[in-house]
Design goal:
8 strands; 168 residues; 5-stranded antiparallel beta sheet; elongated; SH3 type barrels; alpha+beta; 2 domains
Length: 168
């Protein structure tokens, strides 16, 4: 979560705290109002950047390069947007391709995210090249069924799934 602090007379700094308590500055502003508007935008409350005026041709859609810290000590980097599926909003991360790692897309629920650090494209691509995140392997239903123990279905032995009242 982004916050602002009065860093010196006439200067407000926007930033966030890392899990270890270290302060990471994002931008400086000459008024508290501008700092508050930037924090509001970064935390998702504003539809447009604070520097955009009413009527500007802003899309209102979140679209930025970022490094995302997930619960479970995982990190992803890439182009971050929002995607709605079945009325539920997800954070979409398009991880770019790099040598040794194929590009992929991951949709994240808000409960999976610890923090989002906005960065430029070059920084996000460098992070991906360094960490080389991999997409989840695809599971085919036939492979999964082959791995289930066989449960008798009354003699044929072809029913791999137990009845509701049978223990697995």
């Amino acid at each position: 979560m982004f916050v602002y602090v009065k860093s010196e007379s006439g200067l407000w700094t926007v930033g966030h705290y890392e899990p270890n308590g270290k302060w990471v500055a994002e931008s400086d502003h000459d008024s508290e109002e501008k700092a508050a508007a930037r924090v509001s935008y970064l935390n998702g409350a504003e539809k447009r950047r604070p520097e955009e005026k009413e009527g500007d041709a802003g899309s209102g859609r979140f679209d930025a390069w970022a490094i995302i810290d997930l619960f479970g000590h995982q990190r992803l980097a890439g182009r971050v947007t929002e995607q709605v599926i079945g009325g539920c909003s997800f954070v979409r991360v398009d991880v770019p391709e790099c040598p040794g790692s194929q590009g992929f897309t991951r949709l994240l629920g808000n409960g999976a995210i610890y923090s989002i650090t906005l960065v430029d494209e070059k920084t996000a691509r460098a992070f991906v090249a360094y960490c080389r995140p991999q997409p989840m392997d695809t599971w085919e239903a036939s492979q999964m069924l082959k791995q289930l123990p066989t449960v008798s279905d009354g003699g044929s032995g072809n029913d791999p799934l137990p009845d509701e009242d049978e223990a697995i």
